[in-house]
Amino acid sequence: MSRLRIFAETTPDAPLFDSRDGDAIAAELRKIGVTFERWQADQPVEAGATAEAVMAAYKSDIDRLVATHGFKTVDVVSIAPDHPQREEMRKKFLDEHFHKEDEVRFFVAGSGLFTLHVDGKVYEIECVQNDLIAVPDGTRHWFDMGPEPRFIAIRFFTEPDGWVGHFTGTDIAQRFPRYEAALRGEAS
User: Fold this and answer.
1) 162 inside domain
2) What's the rounded mean pLDDT across residues 126-151?
3) Using the 8-state DSSP alphabet, how is residue 48 labeled?
4) What residue numbers does the annotated binding site for Fe(2+) cover?
5) Binding residues
6) Is 188 among the domain residues?
7) What would the pLDDT profile of 115-133 be if each residue is shown by its tens digit?
8) Which residues are annotated as a binding site for Ni(2+)?
9) pTM
10) Is residue 52, in this structure, part of any structural domain at all?
């Protein structure tokens, strides 16, 4: 189940807000310009489905976003606990960074933890199957897929180079819980 916890940036052990209600999550994130939606597949997606089958299952939603936002590239990423580069991939996203384009992800399966740093607050969003999150360009954030990642996500890009992170050099991401601790509701 999706979850949003909001913290003051100085108190990673004391959430100001904590909800698993999709409407409440969307309303809170909308205040900072972040889109949060729940999608349903137009057709079933089976385990082991090809990227083409995954994109076909969500074609109407994908087409709507591409038309609205002008995305040039859409792809599917699938990470499993036995992925040989999972540790390197996890580490790549764990430090605070931003993009010069919106970061839009739809979780077809599995889950991950997006954490946003906006106006002195930290927004920790556990995204699960059927969640779409659209983080505006320039928003400082980090992503944690966990030590044993398991997810399939559709990614949307306006830049032809795909994912390009601009790292801030701060240590704020290390002061907040990693995904496995956040799942248990623990502080960092």
Assistant:
1) yes
2) 95
3) T
4) 97, 99, 103, 141
5) 97, 99, 103, 141
6) no
7) 999 999 999 999 999 999 9
8) 97, 99, 103, 141
9) 0.91
10) yes
